[in-house]
């Protein structure tokens, strides 16, 4: 296949080019391209710290790339510096000429140079990013609850643990949300820091998505001691069936909690709203309490089960030293990285008191690609399973089981954010 010569002007964008860049992003994501002056102004206010690039053909932006600083929580709660990648689009007229490859290789090299431990992204499609050393590291699950079948007590009138649930406004959400989210993300492996504008965008104060804004409902859970421990944003449709029966579906936009009591109470609340016969959970942690807090968990059908956060390890030593380990153990990993950014042979010596990781010449226990290490690092994937799939190689008999004992975790990682 012959590729057309590269005549494009590929570079960071200027501030004056932001409207054109936004049009290009929308076109690449198949959304109506019209951008208003207000949306440009709102978007501009949210981009501090972001690195924005565009490809220009005869002066028109035809492809986009953005990255920005982020923190990702490792197993055990230590945040590591991450290079978050987003808004990757190449117009259909300019696809498969290597634009993504050029940007990605440059951005990952810059991130490595800056000292970022990982790069992160949410992949639009599964096959795009593995070639650049990314691996799927968390998953998301969506359930649809058939409320009348759930077995929950229909007379429920609020939490029985002394806590309370209140419907609140967007103003209140912006007051209590950020602190709650900080508590959650510092404890949850796989969670990421949020940019300052996240809460403003979620409550309609800044609008740059091009979607019409409709105010959702917000409910907050406070513990018996008055501490905010949970927050949910949801919408409901308007569906009256034959026979004048309300058959509404409540759809969760997001739900965050810092305690199991808050998680249980908010799901119970959502499943006890009069008229609501279906609750769509939104993209949740695979470990969410939802299905099993129902007396009949089969009332919660899995409607989505897919990869979510993808990670690219840029520094194997710092990544493996940043996370915690529940048991003592050692492991020699032969990590292949075709880009030359992070490969090598490493000795990991770990215990619940800490870990050290050093380049070594000892013979390897396991040989794997850097993308497979990304899937293992947050504790979600199974080494034994990856070996069975032929995606990593045991160099010493029994090494895969030994590695699972060291790397897997009792709580699965989860990233609540789309970015
Ligand atoms: C983090 C995010 O923003 S996710 C959003 C990603 N964007 C989208 O999905 C929007 C629609 N798609 C696009 O904009 C583009 O097709 C992109 C960005 C996915 C790819 O950009 P391109 O410039 O065409 O990619 P590029 O030419 O560098 O391709 C590199 C390789 O990846 C492969 N590839 C690229 N996209 C895909 C895909 N969607 N599925 C499978 N393979 C792909 C190419 O075939 C090529 O393989 P080769 O080296 O074996 O020939």
TrEMBL record:
Q: Is the Kinase keyword given for this protein? A: no
**Family statement:** Belongs to the acetyltransferase Eis family.
Binding of acetyl-CoA: at which residues?
A: 88-90, 96-101
Q: How does it assemble?
A: Homohexamer; trimer of dimers.
Which residues are in the N-acetyltransferase domain?
Answer: 8-159
- GO terms for biological process? aminoglycoside antibiotic catabolic process
Is Transferase set as a keyword in this record?
yes
Q: Which GO terms describe its molecular function?
A: aminoglycoside N-acetyltransferase activity
Q: Which UniProt keywords apply?
A: Acyltransferase, Transferase
Q: What is this protein called?
A: UPF0256 protein
Transmembrane feature ranges: none
Which InterPro entries does the annotation name? Acetyltransf_17, Acetyltransferase_Eis, Acyl_CoA_acyltransferase, Eis_dom, GNAT_dom, NAcTrfase_Eis, SCP2_sterol-bd_dom_sf
Origin organism is Streptomyces aurantiogriseus
Tree of life domain: Bacteria
Residues at the active site = 129, 419
């Amino acid at each position: 296949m012959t590729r057309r010569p590269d005549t494009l002007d590929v570079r960071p964008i200027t501030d004056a080019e932001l409207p054109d860049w936004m049009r290009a992003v929308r076109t690449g994501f198949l959304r109506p391209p019209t951008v208003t002056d207000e949306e440009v102004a709102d978007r501009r206010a949210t981009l501090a710290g972001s690195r924005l690039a565009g490809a220009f053909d005869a002066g028109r932006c035809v492809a986009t790339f953005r990255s920005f600083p982020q923190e990702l929580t490792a197993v055990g709660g230590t945040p590591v510096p991450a290079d978050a990648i987003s808004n990757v689009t190449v117009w259909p007229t300019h696809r498969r000429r290597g634009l993504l490859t050029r940007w990605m290789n440059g951005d990952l090299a810059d991130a490595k140079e800056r000292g970022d431990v990982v790069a992160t992204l949410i992949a639009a499609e599964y096959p795009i990013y593995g070639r650049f050393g990314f691996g799927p590291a968390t998953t998301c699950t969506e359930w649809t609850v058939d409320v009348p079948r759930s077995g929950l007590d229909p007379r429920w009138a609020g939490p029985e643990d002394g806590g309370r649930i209140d419907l609140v406004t967007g103003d209140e959400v912006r007051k209590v949300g950020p602190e709650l989210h900080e508590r959650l993300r510092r404890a949850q492996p796989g969670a990421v820091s949020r940019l300052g504008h996240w809460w403003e965008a979620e409550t309609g104060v800044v609008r740059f998505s091009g979607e019409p804004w409709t105010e959702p409902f917000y409910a907050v859970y406070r513990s018996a001691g008055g501490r905010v421990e949970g927050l949910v944003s949801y919408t409901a449709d308007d569906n009256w069936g034959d026979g004048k029966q309300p058959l509404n579906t409540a759809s969760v936009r997001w739900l965050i909690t810092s305690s199991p009591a808050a998680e249980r109470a908010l799901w119970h609340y959502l499943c006890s709203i009069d008229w609501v016969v279906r609750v769509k959970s939104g993209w949740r942690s695979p470990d969410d309490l939802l299905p099993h807090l129902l007396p009949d968990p089969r009332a919660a059908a899995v409607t989505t089960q897919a990869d979510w956060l993808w990670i690219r390890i840029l520094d194997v030593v710092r990544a493996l030293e940043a996370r915690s380990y529940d048991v003592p153990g050692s492991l020699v990993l032969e990590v292949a990285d075709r880009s030359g950014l992070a490969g090598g042979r490493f000795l990991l010596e770990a215990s619940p008191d800490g870990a050290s990781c050093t380049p070594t010449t000892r013979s390897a226990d396991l040989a794997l690609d850097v993308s497979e290490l990304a899937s293992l690092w947050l504790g979600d994937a199974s080494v034994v399973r990856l070996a069975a799939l032929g995606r990593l190689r045991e160099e010493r008999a029994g090494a895969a089981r030994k590695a699972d004992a060291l790397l897997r975790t009792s709580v699965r990682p989860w990233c609540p954010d789309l970015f």
